[in-house]
Design brief:
317 residues; alpha+beta; Phosphorylase Kinase, domain 1; Transferase(Phosphotransferase), domain 1; six-stranded antiparallel beta sheet; three-stranded antiparallel beta sheet; 8 helices; 36% helix; globular
Length: 317
């Protein structure tokens, strides 16, 4: 039977939804002092061990200054579990958003929106990876919240994150969202680093632009032993993009370059320098936001309206 409330310290939170089960459990809960029906917080339940303690200590420090992460507001240890209460970022998870788009219940995001969301998360992951020495390891639509008016992508699950120097100790199943996980995540002999985030975020960006996973829908599975002889080609996102005709080739060339490099099956072929990766994402946004490009269809429509107005005025005179 589903628990109706969960106790963290001396506070009881009404459970609204179970978000994840397993080694790390996540619950969506209401505010015990106000409306008990509206999402207010998230409770993350972690195994009580040294690795989890290290994660919590680091995340408490960075979550307050990283808008792509929830903020930890309460921590409690009980028996063999750590309980974290974090802010709930209002929005819808990207997996749900993509499903609605596929069913044509919403308008598919523009190239500008998709790239802006990916670029914002890339900068958030830089803070997470380089400045704090953590690897999230499970960047996938189900773990990302799209905030109101698609302003940003925020991570809602960092229970699978590890310190870089401890990634060899990760548990089976961590970071294994099929298709989005980098190929090296399936090999326990390889110690992953920030390049696994590059691959996963590039998969997310590819999905937002094309409604497909790269490598004929296999994503990171294309680089695993099972498919090593398949020689599956990587088509650049411009070849499959839903709005592919709305930007000139020179802009698509920049988008293709940064995403395809991030999608390299071998980590050594991805960006070895996070700053270079971020700079290339910044260049993509600058290229898109050149006057007249961020919404080229709207500019064209305005030009047609102006032409008809001019013709009508001329006839009237």
């Amino acid at each position: 039977m589903e628990r109706e409330r969960i106790r963290v310290g001396n506070t009881y939170y009404p459970i609204l939804k179970t978000l994840a089960r397993g080694r790390v459990e996540r619950l969506l809960v209401g505010d015990p002092d106000r409306s008990m029906r509206d999402p207010a917080y998230q409770v993350i339940i972690l195994p009580r061990n040294e690795t989890s303690q290290q994660q919590i200590t680091t995340l408490r420090r960075i979550s307050k200054s990283n808008e792509n992460l929830p903020t930890i507001v309460r921590q409690h240890a009980h028996q063999d579990r750590f309980y974290l209460v974090t802010t709930w970022i209002d929005g819808r998870d990207l997996e749900h958003v993509l499903n609605r788009l596929r069913q044509k219940k919403d308008r598919w995001p523009s190239v500008h929106q998709s790239c802006r969301l990916a670029r914002g998360l890339a900068h958030g992951l830089h803070h997470f990876n380089d400045l704090c020495g953590l690897v999230h390891g499970d960047i996938a639509p189900r773990n990302l919240i799209v905030t109101h008016k698609m302003r940003k992508l925020a991570l809602v699950d960092y229970g699978s994150a590890w310190a870089v120097e401890r990634t060899a100790d990760r548990k089976e199943g961590d970071g294994h969202t099929k298709g989005y996980a980098a190929p090296e995540m399936s090999d326990p002999a390889i110690v992953p680093d920030f390049r696994v985030e590059q691959f996963s975020l590039s998969c997310v960006a590819y999905k937002m632009l094309t409604d497909q996973l790269p490598y004929d829908g296999l994503g990171g599975l294309a680089g695993t032993e099972k498919y090593q002889d398949s020689k599956i080609a990587l088509l650049p996102p411009s070849e499959n993009a839903i709005h592919r005709k709305r930007f000139p080739r020179r802009v698509w060339a920049k988008i293709d370059a940064v995403i395809c490099r991030g999608l390299a099956l071998s980590p050594s072929d991805r960006y070895s320098d996070t700053r270079k990766w971020l700079n290339d994402w910044d260049e993509v946004i600058l290229a898109i936001e050149r006057p007249g490009l961020a919404d080229p269809l709207g500019i064209a429509k305005q030009a047609v309206r102006s032409l008809f107005t001019l013709r009508r005025n001329t006839q009237d005179s």
